[in-house]
Every structure is written in structure tokens, then in C-alpha cells.
Amino acid sequence: MGLGVDKRIVANITAIGGFVPENRRTNFDLEKVTETSDEWIVKRTGIKERRILDEGLATSDMAVEAIKNLAVTYSIDLATIDCLMVATSTPDMLMPATANIIAGKLGIENIWAFDINAACSGFLYALNMGSSLVESGRYKRVLVVGADKISSYVDVYDRSTNILFGDGAGVVLLEPSADQNGLLDAILMSNGTGKESLHIEGGGSMYPASETSIEAGRHFIKQDGKVVFKNAIQSMSDTCINVVKRNNYTMNDVQWLIPHQANKRIIDAVGKEIEIEEGKTLVNIEKYGNTIAATIPLCMWENVHRLKKGDLILLTAFGAGFSWGSTLLNWTLD
Ligand code: UT7
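Above: inputs. Below: predicted complex with oxa(dethia)-CoA.
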């Protein structure tokens, strides 16, 4: 006898945490090092400042703070966690996995911990993996982290990237839902065609660290902003529309859109394309810029007081790969 439909396990978010470093890099700071202006940056991106983690600290340090914030706020005993999954493309080091390092720093032993790299889509990829683990019935408490110290890869003299990126970390706890409500569905995609338009080439097996790779600036993030911009709007919009439709909802049923925060103009264009009512889109890009895998959990965490039990929430992201997707969920926290 199989499990009846009514016995299906559904994962839901039962706790959330976040962390951003203290140190701010404002548009005025960038005016001093590159030919740009606060006015241009605000108009073209919506960003006013970003947070930058101190040298000597790494992605794991921010993730640890975000997890501690979650544990304290929701009284979670970290010894009860089954699995720790970290979406990041700026790991502390190539090995061991940042998830392993985080577990060590938190003193959690014998835990299944691993990283997922899907750049700016990483949190949505990890969220879907985490919910599948919970749905399988084999895992009861899964931490899903999105964390990136992208400032380690930003050339502060390159105005095509230095204006966009900042550091941060967010985390959610997934558990089986008591009333079969929570993470409803996800559409996740990649096509591999974006490799030339957005990448950090250096330090991998293709271009290991060498004098020539460093001289060529291969260890910095590079992007063709216009190509990324155009693809982002189309891809996020399509998956938003499809995930809402295939679950028999309309965009009017969606209470909040929480998009990846890469550029305010992209966020506005997606909102227009999918015809979501004004005021339903959560944005915090002005304070943090693009924190890669951390944007969505950070935005959710900051706005947690606005999210009400039963709200239908649409998440969407786009990033290197290209990789992209959308997730539909019912908010179940009080
Ligand atoms: O999460 C996924 C990762 N990334 C993204 O989603 C980012 C996607 N792309 C973007 O956000 C935008 O393409 C940028 C913000 C990177 C650039 O904005 P844009 O509107 O595409 O600007 P542009 O590159 O077309 O440049 C327009 C003008 C140019 O001058 P001219 O040729 O019109 O005289 C540039 O030289 O603005 C100039 N410009 C700047 N001026 C001041 C380009 N960058 C800057 C700058 N400050 N930082």
C-alpha cells in the first residue's frame, strides 16, 4: 500500500535568520575610486550602499551569525538539525565545503552538510533540495543557508561590478508541516549559455591561481550587464507565471513577490511583465545591493513582520549559468 495523497509530507519554513556586516560601502565611496556618481547608480540600479565583510573573515562567518540569529530568535537547538545545506559561490576555500566549516564553527557534529553552487539562484535551488529531503520523510530539520562574501571577488576599480555587489547571509529552517502547508512548488532551470556573460574564472581547475591568471584579473567577477539584464527579466517572469498557473492560482492570489535583488530596474520590469499589483514586491536592494545567494532569505528575514500566516509568496531568482527559477509557498509562521 502506497502513501495516500492526504498523507503527503509538505515542508514549511519554521524559522528564519540573517546577518549583514557592519561596514558600509556607499555610492559616495565608489565615486572616489571610479568614474561614477551616486545619481547614476541610484537611477540605474536602485542601490545606495552595500555591506562589506572585513578582511580575514569569510562566508562561513556570516552564515554562522545568521544561524545563531535563527537559533536565538526561534529557540532552536542546533543539535537537532539533520542536514545543513549552504548555497554559495564564494566558499571559504575550494575544500572542505563551507557547510562543513560552518558545522565545525557551530560545534554541530555528525551532520550531513554540503554546498550548492547555483550563483544567484542558489538559495532557490537549495530550498527545493531541502524541501525534497523533508518530503522524503527521512529528514525532519534542514537548515538552508544562502551566503556569499562576493566582495572578495569584486575589483573595486571596475565600475561595471563594484556598484552592484555586497556581502550577506540568510537562513531558513525547513520542517514537516503540521497541516500539509508550506512549500508548494518550484520551477528551476539552467542552460549553460551564460558562461561568457557572468563568471569568476580564476581559482578553479581551468585557471588555477598563477601569476598570469592574477595579472589577467581572472579572480574578479566579470559580467556583460546588458545580456544578463535582458535574460534575467524574461527568465524570471516566465517561471513566475508558470509556477503560479500550474498551481491553479492567479497573480492576484499572490500576496508577496520576493525577487532576487540584482537591480531595481530588473525587479520593476519583472513586476510589470507578470502583472503583479504595485506594493506587493519586497525590495531591500538600496541597502545591500546584490548579495548573490543571500538576497532572498535576507529580504524575507527583514520583512518577516509583514508576512502573515496563509500569505501566498512567490520567490524568483536569476544568475550565473545562466540559472534561474521561481518558487511558490504558503507562509506558515505566525
Ligand atoms: O544577479 C545577476 C547578476 N547581475 C545582474 O543582474 C546585473 C544585470 N545588469 C545590470 O544591472 C546593468 O546592466 C548595469 C547596472 C550593470 C549597467 O546598467 P546599464 O543601464 O545596462 O548601463 P550600460 O552598461 O548600458 O551603460 C550606459 C552608460 C554608458 O555610457 P554611454 O555609452 O551611454 O555614454 C556607460 O559607459 O552608462 C555608463 N556607465 C556608467 N556610468 C557611471 C556604465 N557603468 C557606469 C557606472 N557609473 N558605474
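The chain has a mean pLDDT of 96.
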